[in-house]
Amino acid sequence: MKVEIKLIDGTGIVGDHEFLNTFKRGFYNGAMSSFSMLKVNDVHSNQEYFFPMTSVVYARELKEDESDE
User: Fold this and answer.
1) CATH fold label, 2-61
2) Is 10 left (phi over 0), alpha (psi -120 to 50) or beta?
3) 4-39 per-position pLDDT tens digit
4) What domain of life does the native source organism fall in (predicted)?
């Protein structure tokens, strides 16, 4: 399953399901601070990104037909 992550600067990244699980854990544990870093594996470019949790505007699961765009 793929996840779309939208950052505060407007950047959109398509990540793997591991990101969504990490994000949910951090959110529910109250780790929404500038020093809480998230790792995203971009499925299109095979790059790893690290950024502060507070820079995420939203994260949503993509349907199969959306994930190939």
Assistant:
1) SH3 type barrels. (2.30.30)
2) left
3) 888 899 988 888 777 777 777 766 665 555 567 777
4) Bacteria
